[in-house]
Amino acid sequence: MAGSARRKLLLMGRSGSGKSSMRSIIFSNYSAFDTRRLGATIDVEHSHLRFLGNMTLNLWDCGGQDAYMDNYFSTQRDNIFRMVEALIFVFDVESKELRKDIETFVLCLRNLYEFSPAAKIFALVHKMDLVVVEKRQDVYRALMKSLEDTSAMFSFKVQGFATTIWDESLYKAWSSIVCTLIPNVTVFQRHLQTFADISEADEVILFEKTTFLVISHVTNVSSPGFRSDSTRFEKISNIIKQYKQSCSKLRAQFQSLSLRGSDCTAYLDTMTANTMIMVIMSNKTDSRGSTDLLGNSDTNADGDDSFAGEAENNIILANIKIARKMFEKIEMMNPDER
Fold first, then answer.
1. Keyword GTP-binding, does the record have it (predicted)?
2. % of residues, the chain, pLDDT over 70
3. Residue 149: which residues within 8 A CB-CB, separation 6 or more?
């Protein structure tokens, strides 16, 4: 079994930029409306978040008031910037002191270059909902161009995201960030592809169970049920997480879900103790059927749609059950076991 892997993440940015709000939405099950009652972060708030089998996200939410910032770059800089896996710097798109924000970003890069030169750098251009739709791309690109040029001076490559707490963009950004920290994400991808091929699924998505961030997904683009919406996974994350919150308020435990529409069926079930899997299947219009991981088929010679639907449901759930041990093993892998 692998030892516990800690990933230190710095969440930084000016006070009021939205750092704590996004942290609370992603990791503490707050709704966007709930964040209105959050106060300013005092100094550094530490969150230790178990993510998958052996990985712990050690999130440092650094208060953005000037007094705290001064300390980060002077008396606390060794403590703050050493052994950092990733910096997530949040820019308030409506900041009146953008130049100062960029100067603070530069100070972060300078200290990371000294103490954690291998750190990954992410910039979240936040509160994009406050920008006129027609100008959002231009505003985002202009800021990112400046940040890319600045990061290159310290041999860092910055990855940017345009975000707001009011849509799925926040889930898309954090899913992408967290996936860069998972050492065996390619192994998840490979086995998820095998699962999708055997099940003849249109799409299969693996979510982290608590945050509902997307860990991996595979898509059959030739499928008649394929959807080209590039934010569909994050929309699902948002919807399911809100549904789970509703269940909690009713003191009900959310375990699994199955939805059958006119052209496709979605199955959501537990894969491991830390993950959930969603399988999307096109509703069949002929006698062809799915195959389970043991080679059994749901083909019905009489063409009974209700029989085929029930059989497909049983096979998908059986496939998930069979695959469960393999995905549990992947979670516990050492990086050198890949």
1. yes
2. 86
3. none
